[in-house]
What we know:
Layout: H1 13-17, H2 30-35, E1 64-72, E2 83-87, E3 113-117, E4 123-129, E5 134-135, E6 143-144, E7 147-153, E8 160-166, H3 177-180, H4 185-189, E9 194-195, E10 206-209, E11 212-213
Parallel strand pairs: 1-10, 1-11
Antiparallel strand pairs: 1-4, 2-3, 2-7, 5-6, 7-8, 9-10
Amino acid sequence: MTHPPYLYPGYKSTLLRAPSREPVMPKLGPDGIELTSPVFGHEELHPMDADLTRRHAGEPLGERIIVAGRVLDRAGRPVRGALVEVWQANAAGRYAHAVDRHPAPLDPNFTGAGRCLTDDEGRYRFVSIRPGAYPWRNHPNAWRPAHIHFSVFGTAFTQRLVTQMYFPGDPLFAHDPIMQSVPDQKDRDLLVCRFDLDTTEPEWALGYQWDIVLGDTPMEA
């Protein structure tokens, strides 16, 4: 598994944030870092945090979806009690964020963020709205494929994976530098969920399955 490089010229934001010098080793040891970092506990979560469609007074606009899967290690063992966070654009391709100036409508009933803890089998499940594509000014006529951002925390704040999940058959894949920054096609395929009829709920929501394998799922560039 080859992760995207920190510096990928086609993805212009990496020019600003990729490290240009050798890392400076912190004076704090691992225990000290964990003591000074945020702590996430079970009491911080609410059962409704995993349903992005029921956070406001009304129903959000768009195609309701269920995204479910497992967080696993490379040996296929479930990762229990991992904090999984998601954030995404709405059905029109706009984030509920002050810096997003895409001239698409905001949805007052959708803010696009959720979280949950994996169960004993490493399973997570979110209910959401399928996000729309959006322009991002990285290059002329640049559009991001529909995607959901995922963040997975381990047993400490210093253990974190940030990645993106895409939907099958998107014609924008070949034109997206973030997707193309993953060198091998087989690794890019790991970022694409699959439609699953068993996860789909009749007359309510389409279902998708996507597993996150720590060490194999490409991290965000």
